Amino acid sequence: MRQKFFAGTQIRRLREAHALTQGAFAERLGISPSYLNQIENNQRPLSASVLLSLAQSFSVDLSEFAQEDTDRLIGDLKEALADPLFSGLTPSGQDLKMIAGNASWFAHAFLQLHTAFRRTNERMQTMDDEDILHRPAGTASDSGMLLPYEEVRDFFHYRGNYIDVLDVAAERIAEEELGIGEGTKVNELADYLLRRHAVRVECEKVEPTSRFMRRYDRVGRVLSIRDGLDPTSRAFLIAHQIAHLEEGDTFEAIIAEAGFRASGAAGITRIALANYFAGALIMPYERFLNAARSTRYDVERLCLMFGASFEQIGHRLSTLQRPNARGVPFYFVRIDRAGNILKRHSSTRFQFARFGGTCPLWNVHEAFEMPNRTLVQIAEMPDGVRYLCVARSATKSVGSHLAQPRHYALGIGCEISYAHDVVYSDAIDLKTTPVAKIGVSCRICERTDCPQRAAPPIDRGLLVDPDRRDFVPFRFT
């Protein structure tokens, strides 16, 4: 179902930038002042005719009016407000919608403040007397700031995991200068790196137990890559180095605009942006989107077509949100055996927990039990939105019996309304397949009948009856 488009804050800023009253601005748009007032207060959505009038009367780029995904922001606010710290405060869904829509800056500031509070509280609870006595004042441990990975995660989260300036630049290089075709691209990328930047690629033999993957020698202009890596990994590492050499200034501009506060966030973002560029270089946007549509988002076929891994394809699918050329919105996740989320990217409304573990009923956990199989599940979140969830295990080895392989589970998914566009829906009956009732995490899930619940919701009272025992040893109000 198409969502209504609200952009009251952007409209108000545009009007104020032109120093116009609501009456004068409304007249330019050909609407009534009362209608404009409702638009600016997000009481009425923007219609196609109003958007057209904006483009004609004020020469604005309509992509500037792309609304922030308020569903993500509302979900994050709900999770934060479930903290016992806010016991007794029960804002309605409409209240949260108004905050997210009319004052998103305040919502983000509130979430940052709450995260800083949680982080400080956790540190205080785990700190022993020796730490308290001997830790220098002002160190990161007592700063209460966001952890850098958390701040970078939110940076991509609230941008729908799409960075247009990098995607367009990578596509131009891929199409105009590299002429990358199908299959593995190691040689083409290595030749380009040498021709354009006088950097040669060399393989470096290391001990099997070494964790080394890549190293760039700025003086000697040599990119050393671990010997024995698979071609998809080698191609990605070379593309990653090209990103740093080609788009370093762009990275710095993006980082400066983001205004990170956590120490180390800028460095992590540089790596994340280089990874984003590398994926876009190996899988150029328009060509990849056309291939994804023609194969109905068949990841296995796309792997062969672009010489990429399941993980690389899954990540790229989550970025296909270019204005006027959008693909099916996907989430992508990578977890370890302990259930820790190692990577998560999304252009969907799927809500990931900001704190705590993931739902055990989600099929991404089951993938570890069924290696080399692609699992398909229909899952419903507590908000009633259903998703087509695809999961598969992955093992990364460095080619030696002495080196311990790394095991992961990978998951992609889209809203069920897009299921017929995705090949994985062919394996199930969308009408009769059982629906898994999953949640964001136990700590904020309100489901009362889940047999896999690990803990009660933190915003509910706990009920313990010594004369009764169910599958879950507690109930809650």
Describe the protein in words:
- Belongs to the short-chain fatty acyl-CoA assimilation regulator (ScfR) family.
- One of its GO terms (molecular function) is DNA binding.
- Residues 11-65 form the HTH cro/C1-type domain.
- This is Transcriptional regulator, XRE family.
- It is a single chain.
- This protein has 477 residues and is α+β, with helices and mostly antiparallel strands.
- It folds into four domains: 8-65, 434 Repressor (Amino-terminal Domain) (Orthogonal Bundle); 70-145, no CATH class; 146-326, Arc Repressor Mutant, subunit A, CATH 1.10.10; 328-436, Beta-Lactamase, CATH 3.30.450.
- Helices cover 42% and strands 13% of the residues.
- The chain has helices at 8-17, 22-29, 33-40, 48-58, 70-81, 93-102, 104-126, 129-134, 148-157, 164-178, 186-197, 231-258, 265-282, 285-294, 299-306, 310-317, 363-366; strands at 200-204, 214-217, 222-226, 321-322, 325-326, 331-335, 341-346, 375-380, 386-396, 406-415, 435-437, 462-463, 475-476.
- The chain has a six-stranded mixed beta sheet with strand order 7-6-10-9-8-11.
- The chain is globular, with a radius of gyration of 25 Å.
